[in-house]
Amino acid sequence: MTNQNRFNLPTEPVPSRGYDQVIDFFSNIGLRREAEMYVRMFRDVVPWRFAVVLIAADTLRRSVRTVALDLAYLCGLNLYPVIVLDNLQGSERNLVPVSAEDGPPKNVPAGQRIRRLSAMNERLVSAVEEAGGRAGGIFNEIFKLNTPLADSPDFDFRRLAEHIILQPIKRAVKNRHIPVVSPVLMDSRGQMRVTSAEKVSKALCMRIAPQKFIVISEGGGLFDRDGTLLRNIILSTDYKSLADSGRLDGAASRQLEAGVRLLRAVPNLTVQFASAGSLLYELFTVKGQGTYIRAGHEIRSARSFEELDCAKLRELLEDGFGKKLVDDYFEEKPHRVFYERHYHGVIVVKPLAGDIFYLDKFVVGRKWQGEGMGAPLWRELTKYYAKIIWRASPGNPINRWYLDQTEGFQRTEEWNVYWIGLTPQEVGGLIERVKNIRRTVV
Prior knowledge:
Elements: H1 3-7, H2 15-28, H3 32-44, E1 51-55, H4 57-76, E2 82-85, H5 110-130, E3 135-138, H6 157-160, H7 167-174, E4 178-181, E5 184-186, E6 192-194, H8 197-208, E7 212-216, E8 232-234, H9 239-245, H10 250-265, E9 270-274, H11 279-284, E10 291-294, E11 299-302, H12 310-321, E12 336-340, E13 345-353, E14 356-364, H13 374-384, E15 388-392, H14 399-405, E16 408-411, E17 416-420, H15 424-435
Parallel strand pairs: 1-2, 1-7, 2-4, 3-4, 7-9, 8-10, 14-15
Antiparallel strand pairs: 5-6, 9-10, 11-12, 12-13, 13-14, 15-17, 16-17
């Protein structure tokens, strides 16, 4: 089944209506909040910093129309991922292992390799245009003259990033074309050479700093030896135990290590492994349908606002709530503040009654929503506080998530009130008090 049928979307959507259709589709499968979050995020992002996508050669052979339909639809949303085409000759082949059909790399003459890549590029560009989108091929023009051949083992993607020219990509996106990059450069003798697609895509991630790096292959994700898909891997908490467990075979281990090396160089990135048929899921939902790898978040705590950068904290609170914070908010002492070290998310706890505390603020910046930051913040909260009460407006998009965390809930005319660890008697005496706490974001 093609993406066209799966999403029931036109091949030439009008941007505003196209976003509505994305939200409508994901609403039907219970993922409206995630889709709305990413739609907001992508509308604000610099178009050429949207995503980098590495597409395996075997996927282009087998599923080029499926890929093209999704790319054409993204064009209709004014979203232009930078596409890098895989090749079978690079020295570094970890993110996209060689398929059984391709077998080990063969000693193909350089000219033939160039022609194959050029034909692959033209095929994808044509398929995108046939589906109603726009795409343009980009070859050696993204590299400076005399760029060293990246196939050398001691020339890694971080060094290659220094030789990349972004202007051709920016120009393509300005003209509303998806840039399709073939990993080709010109050597010191003026000859065209095919280089490592993996290193090129990683180097582009370093230079572009996209929100997502997606590897599209027929495998569709990372699997353990039992064939179980590994859905979500957090570098800070899961990586070591997974690497030491023996659950991964050689190919999956190399994929994981390659993703980890990139995350260490570009820590705010998310690395996703997916199949051709799930690109929109990877872009518009939190977990996607493949494997999702992220660096994780360092959560710190403070006992006063004086220990924090209040300007950054104010910016975070106003961004997350989409409202203004009252001028005197930081004059009232908190009991404890949990915050991500880059001020991407925060929880503010205030004293209420004895050993019962009020969760005053819980927010993640708009750009970082969907990146798994809420869970570690919440873990720190519940590690320190056994009795908590809080409120949220009825239209708060995470009310469903709150219901999963709470032990009790009461709906009032103006607020939903939640609590953990409180007796009925304690709750009864605090509902009115919590309802009447003054608003501090207006």
